[in-house]
């Protein structure tokens, strides 16, 4: 590994991780047993062997199956505390965690169960470990906009327990503009706005996330390199891209990690960041994403490492005083 000490020790923010994607196979089996949920896999090893993905959809099918073991407030709490422990170990000082309420409410789990469990984990981790943690509610883009609107209304009793909304799940065929009304409503509520765009989808989806939804950050965004005008726009407006190297490798967005375009993004002046996306499924948490990326991409230097850490704190939705303390 190149620059391992620096990469591990620098204070950083994680801005793109799905809390349901932090469920390790061992915890999936433990929760399945605790809740009497039947799994389609016989063992931890058999489940792990199924983690061989060819694209985003092949991952999502297994990811939603894994989340089916989450039933009680304690389950959501335990999952989030386990992730925040790993984040603290990687010198993550700020974590903004996505959660997918529709994955749970569709199975009959109450919105209160999901949000209160996750929120209590954030509060306890902040108090006991000093990490700053916040929640971003994501809409599933393969479902209709009406379902997203209903989800936002259902979450309003807990408005003070999440800082923003995002858009995730199957990208191609579900462009951002499909969710124009629900993002306008979220904006009126004073919520931060982000969306997955340009992971597998075209640059046009990044444009409409910016210009129709009005998002403040783009999740993934690596397909922007195919559109020079878009690259200029992202650089000029310092729109952060929350890039996920190991996710891109595992979902075959790039042939190998060595082919990743993050250096091109940084050298073009874009505010790229490094994130783990779904760490239990893609082979590692924050520092593994950093160290494997810097191992594989030969042109990356200590200057790039500082820039990535700086960008992550700058692009976070933390209070200005906290950002100054971390930088
Ligand atoms: N893309 C879209 N949806 C997701 C992802 C992702 O990388 N991870 C979890 N849900
Ligand atoms: Zn993601």
Automatic annotation (TrEMBL):
Catalyzed chemical reaction(s): adenine + H2O + H(+) = hypoxanthine + NH4(+)
Binding site for substrate: 278
Cofactor: Zn(2+)
Superkingdom field: Bacteria
Residues in Adenosine deaminase domain copies: 11-325
Keyword tRNA processing: no
Gene Ontology terms: cellular component: cytosol
Sorted UniProt keywords: Hydrolase, Metal-binding, Nucleotide metabolism, Zinc
Catalytic residues of the enzyme: 199
Site (Important for catalytic activity) location in chain: 220
Positions that bind Zn(2+): 16, 18, 196, 277
CDD domains registered for this protein in UniProt: ADA
Gene Ontology molecular function terms on file: adenine deaminase activity; zinc ion binding
Function: Catalyzes the hydrolytic deamination of adenine to hypoxanthine. Plays an important role in the purine salvage pathway and in nitrogen catabolism.
Family statement: Belongs to the metallo-dependent hydrolases superfamily. Adenosine and AMP deaminases family. Adenine deaminase type 2 subfamily.
Protein name (record): Adenine deaminase
Provenance organism: Diaphorobacter aerolatus
Lineage, opening ranks: Bacteria, Pseudomonadati, Pseudomonadota, Betaproteobacteria, Burkholderiales
């Amino acid at each position: 590994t190149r620059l391992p000490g620096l990469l591990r020790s620098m204070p950083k923010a994680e801005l793109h991780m799905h809390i349901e994607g932090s469920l390790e196979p061992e915890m999936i089996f433990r929760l399945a047993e605790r809740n009497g949920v039947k799994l389609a896999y016989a063992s931890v090893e058999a489940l792990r062997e199924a983690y061989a993905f060819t694209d985003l959809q092949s991952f999502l099918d297994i990811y939603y199956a894994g989340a089916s073991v989450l039933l009680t407030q304690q389950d959501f709490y335990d999952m989030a505390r386990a992730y925040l422990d790993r984040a603290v170990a990687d010198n993550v000082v700020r974590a903004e965690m996505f959660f997918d309420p529709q994955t749970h409410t569709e199975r009959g789990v109450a919105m209160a169960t999901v949000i209160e469990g996750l929120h209590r984990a954030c509060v306890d981790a902040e108090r006991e470990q000093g990490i700053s943690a916040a929640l971003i509610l994501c809409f599933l883009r393969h479902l209709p906009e009406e379902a997203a609107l209903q989800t936002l209304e259902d979450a309003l009793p807990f408005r003070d327990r999440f800082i923003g909304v995002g858009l995730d799940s199957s990208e191609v065929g579900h462009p951002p503009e499909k969710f124009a009304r629900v993002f306008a409503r979220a904006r009126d509520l004073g919520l931060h706005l982000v969306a997955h765009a340009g992971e597998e989808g075209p640059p046009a989806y990044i444009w409409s996330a910016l210009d129709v939804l009005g998002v403040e950050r783009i999740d993934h965004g690596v397909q922007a390199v195919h559109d020079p005008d878009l690259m200029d726009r992202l650089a000029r407006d310092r729109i952060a891209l929350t890039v996920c190297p190991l996710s891109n490798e595992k979902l075959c967005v790039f042939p190998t990690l060595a082919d990743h375009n993050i250096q091109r993004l940084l050298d073009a002046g874009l505010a790229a960041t490094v994130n783990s996306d779904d760490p239990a499924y893609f082979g590692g948490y924050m520092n593994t994403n950093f160290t494997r990326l810097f191992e594989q991409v030969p042109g990356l230097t200590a200057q790039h490492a500082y820039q990535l850490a700086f960008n992550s704190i700058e692009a976070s939705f933390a209070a200005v005083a906290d950002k100054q303390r971390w930088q």
